[in-house]
Amino acid sequence: MDKEFRLTHDPVFQLNACLWLVRKSPFAVRAQKPVFAAEGFVLRALGQKLGIASHLREAFLKAGWPVRPPEPDVIFRHVDSSDHLVIECKAHSFSPDSSTANQGRKLLATCSAPSAAVGVSADSSANAFVIYAVPSEDASQQLATLDKLTQELVEMEIPSSKFGVLGLSIEDGGLWAELDIPSLEEGSDLKIICKRSWITDGGDQDARPIYLVPYDPTAADNQIPQEREYCGRQLTQRILTYAMSVVGRAEVPDSIRIMANDALKSATFDISDRWQAKELDKFRSRIAQEIGSALNRGELKGKVDVRNTFVEVTLASLDEQKIALALLDKSQDGYIANQLTGDQMQVVDEG
Known about the structure:
Blueprint: H1 11-21, H2 35-38, E1 41-46, H3 54-63, E2 74-78, E3 84-89, H4 101-110, H5 114-117, E4 128-135, H6 139-155, E5 163-171, E6 174-180, E7 196-201, H7 225-249, E8 254-259, H8 260-267, H9 279-295, E9 304-306, E10 310-315, H10 318-329, H11 333-340
Parallel strand pairs: 3-4, 4-5
Antiparallel strand pairs: 1-2, 2-3, 5-6, 6-7, 8-10, 9-10
């Protein structure tokens, strides 16, 4: 039987909880700076393909594993030590016998060679720690699984990176994250963040931080319909707001361009610049199509040119500018959200 759904099971919620840990500004005006950010950790990438060292490629082939580079959800970097936290978000823990376990083996092995995996200097002592973000009730089981997978790799004569879990919980009036990395060396820069850290206030159903990334096409298939709809509407409203800001700044008469990439950057607080998922190219094209469809109506029909990465609109007068703003303002965000986040945009996770 499936476990009862909680917000901490949702992959986009988990992703945003992680992102707030390294946000330089706090969630609330009077709140303290997020703990990881305060200790020198920064966001490096989302969905970045890791490099696989040549000796590991040979070992993967020998083990019968596909030599596809892992693409973890989030990567943090410690500025001073160059240690990396390579984070994978999961709704639940998994067992060593599950279909997900091979993804874990590959990630542990790949991160054992941090110079190849994340590009740190070959003579650096920096580590790439594999961290699984899971609901807190699953944290101990996930640690046990990672320990077992490490033992299996040793038996196969394949090296393994160090590992840990980031347990997410909604309790005591807020959202909390607790990092646990067994066997950390004394003096490690990570020890100071291995504790329970507050992210935001709220109860079971409202402890949401502002979604810095409102929608993830690689995770949508793992969301329940209500969460996918919530995320789609958040994304759509921000994109339409951005388009209105471009139209509103036009000095008519004018021919303006609404760039899909800029709309996505605005909707994700510029984080999309660090997001390397290949699905985003198709997503940007879809954003341009939907903005264009919203504008190419009534008196503006025929004055809107939709290209792959932008929408060009010719505004001959203040009246046409007002019409464009009204069209965007009255757009049905639910319909556009469905067009942006439909099944064709969802991606199957490959181990």
